[in-house]
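Narrative of activities, Objective 1.

The group set out to show that a structural description can be obtained from nothing but a protein's sequence at a throughput compatible with the screening campaign. Below is one input-output pair from the validation batch, recorded exactly as produced.
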Amino acid sequence: MSTILTVVASVIVILLLLSLSYVLWQLLFRHSSSRRQQKQTSSSPKVFGFFHPYCSGGGGGERVLWKMIQLIQQSSPNNNNNKSEEEEVEVVIYTIDPPDTDEATLRKDAERRFDVHISKPVRLISLEEYKDYLLPSPYLSLVLESLGTMKLARQGLLRCSPDVFCDTTGCAFTFLVARWMMHPTAQILAYVHYPTISTDMMLWEWQQATTTSRQSNKKFLGKTILKLVYYWMFAIAYGIVGSLADLVMVNSTWTYNHIASLWRFTKEIHIVYPPCRVPSNSSSSSSTTTAEMKPPESSRQSTIVSIGQFRPEKDHPLQIKALARLLEKHPEHAKQVKLLLIGSCRNDEDERRVAALKELVTELQVQDQVEFSINPPYSDLQQSMYKASIGIHTMRQEHFGIGVVEMMAAGLITIAHNSGGPKADIVEDGVSGFLATTVDEYANAIHRALTLNNPQDMRQRAQQSATRFSDEVFDSSLEHVLSKSSLLLLLSMDNKKQD
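Output recorded for this entry:
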């Protein structure tokens, strides 16, 4: 117990030091605020630095990154032929990819994976030699892993100090480093996919403790109370550093509620739904191409599609167990139903998770019904969705759910977790899809989807609902938010009028 108290005391000291740093910065910032305002009226930001260590990944966060870069480049003053080279906007990405990574290849890969065309070069700042800073910690993970992101951000800012520091990974503690190292007139922009800590997380910890303690002893409950104190102190520090951002965008109502409750001193927080590959309501060549690729509804097979990176929080084992439970309760589906797990592997750890999933498939004896598709191109992913009948998503407290939207847009009867973004913003249970929590609930929802009298009605409602999250809506929402902030200097109407 004394060891635990010592650790907790150490954590509190660290957090108090961070709080003190914030107070010191506030004094410095107030002293330089007049210079900030003077510069903002006379010049535009020229360097946008994106802190996104895994920019070569294949997840929804990476698609947001590339879409933001695309919009910034398209809207920058250097699109006007009358502008000088001195006013050209540069995009920098702080990444842990190797130094010899070809940025042109990375842009082409973004187009292949996400259907996002980046026409202008970006500058990659490789921090590969410091990638160990991002390794998970076996203890005090919240504090030590946040410290790791701060150290990595410091190395990046030593190499290039931007005019606008953009965090698109949710590493709020990097704001403290950025504010300390960058010029006082520099700005911080954040797009938050998921809060590092939330009240839901603390409530879940307490519920687990009270349930378990009844079956064990009060010592376990005491440890949980200490852990909750640790979480509470971390949440205070998280709220302070998060409030250093000049402009905050969040991806869902669920994320907004948590960030607004934690980052209480943030001036601007806006919901900007992430860009999903769905047809917009307006006609375009891209939507026409998609329609041409789409096979007739009659060709759909009894396949269940899962889309998501192979990470622990995605809970792919729940999907496999739900399939096994379905076949146990309704063996008549055994000959037709297939589960196709589509996702990307970022590293060796992800590949080991896939191997563990394959072992689970063998253990539950559903190897004839389960297939894996690792890192497929976007065209293959599209075809898989168009040929399937059902989509499944099992992440608990998913911050938004880009995969859920894309499955709905493809006409899949989608079953998502009854929490987070899917519940708050995307799926209307029984109308545009189904919501579930347990293995049995997922198995029952799959059975309902397979036996609907008129599945086409639900498919059409899902597709119509998904248009709320198109690329077109993201672009207009992002531009609207930036136009309301001081970053309008980059996306000003004056520049558009001169184009």
